[in-house]
Amino acid sequence: MPVARYALQYAAQLAALLGPQWRAASADSSTFAVLEGPDVEFDVRTTAPVRAHTAVTVSTRPRGDLVWSRRSDYRGEASGVIGDPGPVADEIRSHIMPAWQDLVTELEARTARTQAAIRHFAPLAAEITGATVSYGSRPGVADIRWKGGHAVLWASDEGLISSPSIEITRARGADTVFAVLHSAAGTARRCSIGDIGEAAARLLGDGWSATSSPWGVASQIEHLDTPGAGYTLAVAEGHLYVSADLVDESRTYLNDVSDADDLEVLGACVCAVVRRFLNDS
User: Fold this and answer.
1) Residues 31-62 pLDDT 10s
2) Is the CB of residue 153 less than 8 Å from the CB of residue 139?
């Protein structure tokens, strides 16, 4: 194999040694190129002038489609000389790629969890606030906008939601958004029907209240302007449901929640059902 005269030629030699799934890409530089493989890219760096014994370094590039693209506990790197690509190719094949594949498998699983968490929570937040939701190119991130402001939501791989950026122009919007964000940040705990009703009333806003029935088997949620025309929260057949007191056959089951969910999450789900009733009336 002839001695490479520039980084791209060296990267092409590595690709030939590693197999048909590998290729070299130009970076318009004699001392820098990119080596592309299955789900991985390497920076190939050397110095000028290029000679047979000129040092060359090959290192993994972060995967931009993963949430943890800046994770730095593993950075695959191999060094050699530009006149002998064989040892570097062996290092990539036998050590760097197995470690890289393990890392990517872990990060892909964590990314999938954040995508599921944000796509479950963001629409619920949007329904409560009357906001619209958009998703960017980074998994686990959503942008919600409502009359009065907007917020960026991030999901961790543990399913916790945070917001690094909130812009508020209306105070009531702030109250609502902070309540919604809080609904994803609590720790799991058991709660009563009355607790859930009160959590929903807080999210519904000014004028709403919740009153527990005797023995705590149900909660009456209503607005002070419409007494007697509220909503009943109770349990049947092991599932929470909400029904509108003045609407026949309006019982709506919350099949996607359980007693393992946080109080504020349960309250947010009940709040969303009540708001759907209000929008349909």
Assistant:
1) 999 999 998 999 999 998 889 999 999 999 87
2) no
Sequence-distant (≥ 6) Cβ neighbours of residue 164 within 8 angstroms: 152, 154
- The pTM of the full predicted model, rounded to 2 decimals, is 0.49
* CA gap 11, 2 in Å, rounded: 13
| Tens-place pLDDT, residues 113-142 | 777 777 777 777 677 667 788 876 666 778
Q: What is the rounded CA–CA span in Å between residue 206 and residue 173?
A: 12
Among candidates 197, 213, 216, which has minimal Cα distance to 273?
197
| Residue in the structure block whose two tokens are 């959590």 | 199
Q: How far apart are alpha carbons 35 and 17 in whole angstroms?
A: 12
Place of tokens 């190939």: 44
DSSP state of 53: T
What is the number of alpha carbons within 13 Å of residue 249 lying toward its C-beta?
0
Inter-axis angle of helices 193-204 and 171-182, to 10 degrees? Answer: 150
